[in-house]
Amino acid sequence: MPSCWGQPTSVVSATGTDSVSSPVRNVLLIMADDLKASVLGCYGDPHCQTPNLDRLAAKGLLFEHAYCQATWCAPSRRSMMFGRYRDQANVTLGQQLQDHAAYTARVGKIFHMRVPGDIIAGIDGLDQPKCWTERFNSPGPETHTPGLYACLNQNLFTRQLANRQSTKMPHRMFVTVQSDGDGTRQADYKAASQAIELLKQRRQSDQPFFLAVGLVRPHYPMVAPSHYFDDYPVDRIAMPANWKDDTSDIPKQGRAATTNARNSIGDFPENQKQMWSGYYASVAFMDAQVGRILDALEQHQLADSTAVIFTSDHGYHLGEHGWWQKSNLHEEVIRVPLIVRVPQQARGRSKSMVELIDLYPTVCQLMSVPTPAVAEGKSLLPVLQDPLKRLRQGALSIHNGHSLRTDHWHYMRYTDGSEELYDMQQDPGETRNLAGEPTPSKELLQMRQALQQRLREIKTVN
Question: Running DSSP on this structure, what letter comes out for residue 70?
C-alpha cells in the first residue's frame, strides 16, 4: 500500500517568489451547520463575537468567495465528501486517505444528520461508515434543554419543558433556548471534547490523520447558554437592509419556501430580531468550541504539522427578502465561510471563486495522496500559494436549476426556463432582477452562454 507519510507539501508565499517547505502531515476539518459567511467578525459583521475564528483567519487564508454546490445539508455534505457535483461516482475522501495509510475520524455531523432528531438520539444519520477509521457521535438535548424556550413564530415564551417544538414538528425552525447550564451538555461541546481527546491520542502516533469535526450550531434549535444571548439584545439588532424587498420580479422556482408572507413569523417583527439574537448567540457558542479545539492543537504540539480548514455546508436566510432558512440559489444561502490555515504559509484574503467540492483534492494534495481522476473539484493549493490566483471564472450551485456566481454577476436559470441576474457590485442585496428587462442585455446573454459552457464542461449536472 502506498504511503503518504513524511511527504512535505511545497508552498509559496503570497508574493509567489519565496518557496518554503511546509511539514503538513495532518488535516483538521471543522464544519459548522447553516452558517452564513457574512455573520462572522472576520467576514465583516460588526456585532457577532467570533474571536476564535477571527484568529484562525488572521493566521490563514480567508476565501471571500466560497460557494456550496447544493443548498441544504444532505446533498451539500455528500457533494463535498465525494468530490462530485451531484452523484457518488467516487470513493469518499476518507476512503481515499485510508487507502494511502492515513487515519481518518469523524466527530459529530459531517455527512447528513437530522437536527435535532439524530442529535438527540445520538445516531449516525446518513453517515458513510467506510469513510472513517473511527467515528463518534455527540448527542445533546437540543430543544429539551432547561432554560428560557421561545417559539418565535408562535410568540411563545416559557420555561416549561413540556410541549416544545422538536423533531419533525412544524415550527421547530423558529426555536431558541437560552440555556440555564454552562453548555457542557450540548452536542457541540461534547464534539469539541472528543476532538481534543483524539488530538491528544494522535500526538503519540506516527500515522498521518484526517480529523473531521462537525458542529451543529447555528442550525436550529438555536441553543446556547443564556450569557451568549445577553450580548445580542433585541434593541441592538438591525434587520438586513433588504428585508422588506419586493420579490415580485423573482421567479417562483427562485423563491424561498418559508417567508414572512406565508409564515406567522411575519406577524412578529420584534421576534424576527430575536431570531438574529439566537443566531448570533449560537454562532458565538460554536466559535467557543472551535477555540477549544484550536487550543488543543497547540497544546499537543500538532499545530506546526496540521493544516486547519473551517467551513459550513451552506448559508442561511434570516429575513433577507422576507425569507427564512435555505434551499434557494441566492447569495445568503450559497455563500459559505472558508478559512484555510497551512503551517508556514502566507496569510491574507483571496477573492478567488472556489467551491466546496474543491476541498476533496485540496486535502488529498496537502496529505500527499493522489486525487482520483473522477473528483470534479480543483485543488486550492495554487491559491494557498498565491492568493491572487484564480481557479475558475465562476462558482456553480444547483437547486431547481443552476446558479453561476462570478466576480461581478450572479445568474440563475431554473428548470422551467425562468431566470435571475444581479449586478453584485452595484446590488449586493439582490434587489433588482435584471433578467426581467424587456430586452435581454449583453450581460444576460454572456451569462447564459457562460453557464451553458460550464455545464458542458461538467457533464454530470446536465
Answer: B
Positive/negative CA dihedral, 3, 308, 191, 220: negative
**Is the CB of residue 349 less than 8 Å from the CB of residue 61?**
yes
Separation between Cα atoms, residue 190 and residue 120, nearest integer Å: 13
Q: Which long-range contacts (CB under 8 A, 24 or more apart) does 55-58 make?
A: 55/294, 56/290, 56/294, 56/308, 56/310, 56/339, 56/341, 57/339, 58/347
The candidate with the shortest Cα–Cα distance to 142, out of 183, 170, 111, is: 183
Residue 101, helix vs strand vs coil: coil
| Residue 51: cis peptide before it, omega within 30 degrees of 0 | no
Give tens-digit pLDDT for 423-440: 999 999 999 999 988 899
Confidence of residue 459 (pLDDT cuts 50, 70, 90): confident
Determine the residue type at 193.
S
Give which of 311, 334, 349 is closest to 215, Cα–Cα.
311
CB atoms within 10 A of CB 130: 11
Instruction: Tell me how far apart the alpha carbons of residues 236 and 328 are, in angstroms, rounded to a whole number.
Output: 29
Check: CB of residue 228 under 8 Å from CB of residue 415.
no
Q: How far is CA 134 from CA 108, 127, 194, 210, 366, in A?
A: 12, 12, 12, 11, 21
| pLDDT value for 345 | 81
Q: How far apart are CA 344 and CA 363, in angstroms?
A: 17
391: helix, coil or strand? coil
Whose grid coordinates read 458542458?
A: 456
Nearest to 289 by CA among 72, 107, 117: 107
pTM for the full predicted model: 0.95
Given a contact cutoff of 8 angstroms between Cβ atoms, the answer to whether 303 and 297 are in contact is yes
Name the grid cell of 48.
457577532
374-388 burial string, b = 16+ CB within 10 Å, else e?
ebbbbbbbbbbbbbe
Q: Give residue-wise pLDDT tens across range 292-308.
A: 999 999 999 999 999 99
β pairing state of 209-218 and 338-341? unpaired
Amino acid occupying residue 230 = D
State the amino acid at position 447 in one-letter form: M
Kindly tell me the burial class for residue 204, based on how many C-beta atoms sit within 10 Å of its own C-beta (0-12, 13-18, 19 or more): exposed
Other beta carbons less than 10 A from residue 306's beta carbon: 24
What's the DSSP call for residue 302?
Answer: -
Return the C-alpha cell found at 159. Answer: 420555561
260: which residues sit within 8 A by CB, 6+ positions away? 266, 272, 319, 322, 323, 324
